[in-house]
Amino acid sequence: MARILIIDDDPQVCGTIESLATRMAHEADQALTLSQGAKQVREGGYDVVFLDVRLPDGNGLDLLPEIVSLPDAPEVIILTGRGDPDGAELAIQQGVWDYLLKPSSVREMTLTLGRALKYREQKLTKSVMDSLDLCGVVGESPTFQGSLRQLAEGARSGANILVTGETGTGKELFARTIHQNSARKGGKFVVVDCAALTETLVESTLFGHRKGAFTGAHSDRTGLVKLADGGTLFLDEVGEMPLAIQKSFLRVLQERTFRPVGGTTELSSDFRLLSATNKNLELLVEQGEFRSDLLFRLKTMQIHLPPLRMRPEDIRALAQWQAERVCRRYGMAEKGFGSDFIPTLESYEWPGNVRELLNIIEQTVVGAGEEKTLYSMHLPRELRIKVARAQVRKMTGVESAPETGPEPVRKIGQDIFEEIFEQELPTLRDFKGMAEKAYLEELIRQGSGEVSDILSVSGLSRSHFYALLKKYGLSL
């Protein structure tokens, strides 16, 4: 909901704009004089100001310099008479959002107000984003920017946040960044690896224990919940939390109190809760493996991180960032990228997401030694083979046959990759020729030299087939 101020001496104009703002679910105030309007503007908190030029006690344009100099200056829409073109020109020169000629239609006022509010929202979001500490968070793609805007909102609030996404998308990094930009950044960021919790030790790990509470408890131990007092408690892979402990933890979320194992008194902990999972918690609730009331507590706000294959525009920036970081760490000279390096990375599916990409870049940089430029040939052989096979499938339209039966079916082109990808990539034209030749060889082998079967499978005409045999020096 936005706050709007209307400074105009015409009660009918004020009433019309106020009614319009109310219908758009915004709050509106009126000021019938310049002095009253100036007082309300100084109090702050407005997103848009409708400002009339001719007022009983002065010219509205005289208030413009003061409005635009405010720390969080609202957008200004000038209301001017049709016989005052100089006023409109002067207003635009001073940086107002727009001006309306009186009388204006409700539709025109609605469009102008809507555009001004949208512009303001984008401007404020950019301002907040620029002020964030995003150390290690890399990405400019539209998909990822949506997640970053949610991060900014989450950092400003104290709400419980659930971060979802596939393994390796950077869920813990996002949670740390939210903490680092929140009012609790002076406190600890305590990680609970729910996948590593065992039912026998989970309560002791979370809530701590007293000496002698069980065999092996030789001294008091402070639990992770207490360690997060004044800071942030991060439940990593919360979908793995044992069902038996979920009820106990729900009470901790509600009351912010708990009892250590073997203890007789309740302790308190003022923490903010962030969680992450790569599982569908709603599905786990349906299956009876996760408590619905706990899920409601966890996701007051939810941020989803897209997989790397959905944000290929960020691969270059991530690769560059990691290469520079690895070079600094190992005292190596900075390395550049050859023309084939990024295209190869962009052709890979990245099942391990950003984590896999960063590991691959580190491995590649270290493996390249003193070489100053990274080419596709420096990438791990397994990655290049997967990329090449994907390219062959895309070009030929033929999928590899499943390996079933006592004698596995030979995959089309499976031998050419080891030959050509241990060196700098060939041109696309040369690669297509290699792939075409490999396809023909496999076609002849599987067709046992029977031309009718070969033509039926391949869709080639007889003349085209024989022309290809001649081109590649093959025979039946």
Helix-strand layout with pairing:
Blueprint: E1 3-7, H1 11-23, E2 27-31, H2 34-43, E3 48-52, E4 54-55, E5 58-59, H3 64-68, E6 75-81, H4 85-93, E7 98-102, H5 106-131, H6 142-156, E8 161-164, H7 171-180, E9 189-193, H8 202-207, E10 208-209, E11 221-222, H9 224-227, E12 232-236, H10 243-255, E13 257-258, E14 267-268, E15 272-277, H11 281-286, H12 292-298, E16 301-304, H13 315-329, E17 336-337, H14 341-346, H15 353-368, E18 373-374, H16 381-396, H17 416-420, H18 428-446, H19 451-458, H20 462-472
Parallel strand pairs: 1-2, 1-3, 3-6, 6-7, 8-15, 8-16, 9-12, 12-15, 17-18
Antiparallel strand pairs: 4-5, 10-11, 13-14
Helix pairs in contact: 1-5, 6-7, 13-15
**What percentage of amino acids are in beta strands?**
5-15%
* Average pLDDT for all residues: 86
The CATH superfamily name of the domain at 142-304 is P-loop containing nucleotide triphosphate hydrolases
CATH topology of the domain at 142-304: Rossmann fold
Determine the oligomeric state from the structure.
single chain
- Label the CATH architecture of the domain at 142-304: 3-Layer(aba) Sandwich
The main sheet orders its strands as: 2-1-3-6-7
For the biggest sheet, the summary is: 5 strands, parallel
Number of distinct helices: 20
Q: Could you name the CATH class of the domain at 142-304?
A: Alpha Beta
Poorly predicted sequence stretches spanning 5 or more consecutive residues: 400-410
Describe the structure.
There is one protein chain. The chain is an alpha/beta fold and 476 residues long. Among the domains are: 3-126, Rossmann fold; 142-304, Rossmann fold (3-Layer(aba) Sandwich), CATH 3.40.50.300. The protein contains 20 helices and 18 strands. A five-stranded parallel β-sheet has the order 2-1-3-6-7, sandwiched between helices. A five-stranded parallel β-sheet has the order 9-12-15-8-16. Helix 1 (11-23) packs across helix 5 (106-131) and helix 6 (142-156) crosses helix 7. The protein is extended, with a radius of gyration of 32 Å. The N and C termini lie far apart (76 Å).
